[in-house]
Every structure is written in structure tokens, then in C-alpha cells.
Model the fold of this input.
Amino acid sequence: MRWLALLAFLASSQAAAQPSPRCPRYAADWAAAQRHFDLTAISLGFVAAHQTFLDSGCRSRAPICPRGPAETHLADAMTIAAMNAGAASSFLPFRCPD
Done:
């Protein structure tokens, strides 16, 4: 019985380690956005947090809170790109804790 529990745990941890199937498309959209947006107004913290999201296979649930108009505009563009690719809004990392 313990072996079944162990196998179930290992299977679930393997599934959690797999990147989201939407991540490659989202990563490509992020690369395109970096070419089209003026990143001088985007903070290094925003970019680093977003890279952490990508490095996690788009599974990290750490919130990325856009600060200021440029980051909000970029987050909005990424949201639209993700929605156009069929990703639900819950896929995205952009949210500001209260």
C-alpha cells in the first residue's frame, strides 16, 4: 500500500515538473514583445520575475505586479497574446497582491 502512495506521489511530482504546454508559445511571444517594446522603462525586477516564470515552465505562481504605465502596457500585451493563443487568464503571472 505504501508503494502505491509513493508511486502516486512520484507521478504527481513528475507532472508538476513538466512545463505548461502553452509555455513555448508564451515564451516566443515574450521574446517578440522584448523586440517591440521599449524596455528602458521596464524594471529589472519585472524582467527577472518574468524570467523566473518562464524558467519554471510557466508554472510559477509567484505574482508579478506591473508598476507604472510601461510595465502595465507590456503585461496587457502579454495577456492579449496569451488569450489569443487560447491560454486562460489564470495561466498568466500578472497580479498584484493586496
Confidence is low (pLDDT under 50) at residues 9-15. The chain has one domain: 20-91. Residues 3 and 12 are 14 Å apart (CA to CA).
